[in-house]
């Protein structure tokens, strides 16, 4: 567990110094160690290891104005006290420059310790052993490409990242919450080139420890998806992009997750709403109750233990619970933080996150997904086009052609204020009652709220095993997803890119 656990007297001393200066103090202690390795085909391209620790002090005066200061010198008590003292001086000089907010003083005190590292050994595999495993995965993936006859035309880039991270957050009111978690990420980027045409897609997995690299079942899942991707890339590379326009669309869980996270989740962050930078805001308030989708649709942000994006408490030590951004088609809750959660007419929901001890807390997502009520059965996420054709026929949706978009390609562009988005996808099936044609990927774009209104059906269970990193100036872990497939009726506000 964290070294700082052994420094109870030091924590008490820092809180006493703050109290004697009429300062409310939040202290964020962070310790982290990581190993990262990247293999390109049969070559190790990058290796890095590191260990970091630090302390961030968030100081509030009695008016609720605040400053931040931090140090990476956690072992020197004198240096810690000096850093805190400098923060106190800065706070006293602040005057009325910053907007006051007294919500921090009204939080309920909390005591909790979460340790998910039982049985986890950060040094279970050496860097050399990790390198060997990645090269072996690349070799196996190339072998998979031999069956469709593309093995020598594939470029495989596989990256592995494992981290053990610990946090301790204390407040002047006696709050002390601590958590320590391991997490690992394995991403395989597959590129296939045929002549001058180059197509690509990714397979990404995560686990709460070494499993994603060491458990045969997880490796088999990765290779199964890689084989699916290889076949689809080969087939799509021979074809052009589809003609741009408005169509009935079926998108997979990776793209559904992008819609949930990028196009809508960021619109629900309370600071964006407060600044009137969201389609969910009106004069700086959350438009609660506003109908934005069919009553069968919900969008949820919910942290989950032993997942890539697990975050049990906010940067202020507030418990992070389930957030129903949309419930039964209507706006319900925001990703509210201490500074703006109540100001927008909602509440504080523990959504504030930080990348490091020195970062500024911001409302951020964790595990965000679209859920459609009473989903129809699905042949599975890796279903081939014929199975999807049958699924659509069985549900009376294939009276005319439907375009099936698969595989997210490098995120996209979003404007939360204008309420617009554009995402790339890897390949497309044109499915009619009697035919199936495959095309190369391009992009689809539209107005966020109109895209949500066009979602009428969901197929299969919720799938949220798409790990990634979310930006906004500082990177935090995230998971996205939706039902295995979601259906969007043709809309003039949702447009396929292409030729």
Descriptive notes:
The N and C termini lie far apart (56 Å). It is globular and about 80 Å long. The chain contains nine helices and 23 strands. Helix content is 21%, strand content 38%. The model has no long low-confidence stretch (mean pLDDT 95). With 499 residues, it is an alpha+beta fold.
Which descriptors would you attach to this protein?
499 residues, alpha+beta, 12-stranded mixed β-sheet, 7-stranded mixed β-sheet, 9 helices
Set out the fold topology.
Blueprint: H1 8-20, E1 24-40, E2 43-60, E3 66-71, H2 77-93, E4 111-115, H3 127-144, E5 154-171, E6 176-194, E7 197-207, H4 211-214, H5 216-237, E8 249-252, H6 253-264, H7 270-274, E9 281-282, E10 285-286, E11 297-301, E12 323-327, E13 330-331, E14 352-353, E15 362-363, E16 367-372, H8 385-394, E17 402-415, E18 420-431, E19 436-440, E20 443-447, H9 448-453, E21 455-470, E22 476-488, E23 494-496
Parallel strand pairs: 4-6, 8-17, 16-22
Antiparallel strand pairs: 1-2, 1-5, 2-3, 5-6, 6-7, 8-22, 9-10, 11-12, 11-16, 12-13, 14-15, 17-18, 18-19, 18-20, 20-23, 21-22
Helix pairs in contact: 1-2, 3-5
